[in-house]
Design goal:
By secondary structure, this protein is α/β, with parallel strands linked by helices. It is built from 12 helices and 13 strands. A 7-stranded mixed beta sheet has the order 2-8-7-6-5-3-4, with helices on both faces. Strands 9-10-13-12 form a 4-stranded antiparallel beta sheet, with helices on one face. Strand 6, helix 7 and strand 7 form a beta-alpha-beta unit.
Length: 356
């Protein structure tokens, strides 16, 4: 009962009205047409279980990134893979570390297996490697680190990731949650996947729910050393990725044009929205620099985050208010379509700069 349940992003107002949903970091461009076609064409024999080994999915991931398919783990979203890591590596008496303002699932995963969660202080909403290392004890089993981080959008460069890994005991598993990795330019890659390919105590996790636009199918994957993956398979639920979902994910991986379009759209409108928030800075608004597909906007003036959240809802927009994650003064805003993003900014300005 010490577990605070995960609260998903809402899509409706308190009175049931359907709103412009900018609360769950979904892809505003939808889904790759190739992925949708593959989903529609997949075998729909509902009486047959899907391939329990997710063979076509593992092989497609391995081919794209130059990996060993036998070292690919898969799950019902990357959340599932995070839970598998906790189940394989931690238990009662152990400690699991994650950063302040980290992804809510880390604490749930730790408590679910009876481990003690430890929260490392942040550095202006970003990951502080030294603070993480200061939390390490002989009971530490896992360090969870999202990069970019959710819900702040902050990014830890490869030199800091490497420094963190080098300083951790070999008995500690470093889990690098890369749910938003595809929004990062190639030259800024944090090299987490390379560490997972070469080091025995690193696991990376990724998802098809964000840039690939397959949130409804819940498909995640991870990569790590063979013994780690074998342990995770022992507790993985069987048949955990649907038949149609596997085919859609394989097609999504191959549609590089769609991914590039989504990345470019996100970069353009994230920057635009950040500028709009900056122009409201005299009203106490501040956007934390983000490398993901959302902005965390802080309300440090007379208008509170709660008031803005309710005001946006009245105007037809739903974002994510985060009091449960220690951010009662913050709203996480997904980057939407051009019209949605412009509308959101106009609605927000109307709240903080009301007309007489």
């Amino acid at each position: 009962m010490a577990i605070a349940p995960y609260v998903p992003g809402r899509s409706t107002a308190d009175d049931g009205r359907k709103l412009v949903k900018l609360s769950a970091n979904e892809n505003p461009l939808g889904t790759s047409p190739h992925a949708r076609a593959a989903f529609d064409a997949a075998d729909r024999s509902l009486d047959r279980y899907p391939d329990p080994g997710a063979t076509i999915l593992r092989e497609a991931i391995a081919e794209k990134y130059g990996l060993d398919p036998l070292r690919v783990i898969y799950g019902t979203g990357s959340d599932d893979v995070l839970h598998l890591a906790a189940g394989a590596y931690a238990g009662p008496g152990d400690e699991v570390i994650f950063v302040h303002y980290g992804f809510a699932v880390y604490e749930i995963a730790a408590r679910r297996v009876g481990a003690t969660p430890l929260v490392a202080p942040d550095k202006d909403y970003a990951t502080d490697v030294d603070a993480i290392l200061a939390c390490v004890t002989d009971r530490t089993r896992i360090v969870f680190l999202a990069n970019p981080n959710n819900p702040t959008g902050t990014f830890t460069p490869r030199c800091e990731i490497a420094r963190l890994h080098a300083a951790l005991p070999k008995s500690v598993l470093l889990v690098i949650d890369q749910a938003y990795a595809e929004y990062i330019d190639a030259e800024d890659d944090d090299a987490g996947l390379l560490l997972a390919m070469t080091e025995p105590n690193v696991l990376i996790t990724r998802t098809f729910s964000k840039i690939y636009g397959l949130a409804a199918e819940r498909i995640g994957w991870g990569y790590g050393a063979a013994p780690l993956i074998e342990a995770m398979h022992r507790i993985r639920l069987p048949f955990n990725v649907t038949t149609a979902g596997q085919h859609a994910a394989v097609a999504a991986l191959g549609d590089t044009d769609f991914v590039e379009s989504a990345r470019a759209h996100n970069a353009t409108w994230r920057a635009w929205l950040a500028d709009e928030i900056a122009s409201m800075g005299n009203h106490g608004l501040r956007a934390v620099p983000s490398r993901a597909n959302f902005l965390l906007v802080l309300f440090e003036g007379t208008v509170t985050a709660e008031a803005a959240y309710k005001g946006l809802m009245e105007r037809g927009y739903i974002v994510r208010w985060l009091p449960g994650q220690g951010l009662p003064h913050g709203l996480r805003m997904t980057i939407g379509t051009e019209d949605e993003t412009r509308g959101l900014a106009a609605a927000l300005r109307d709240i903080v700069e009301p007309r007489n």
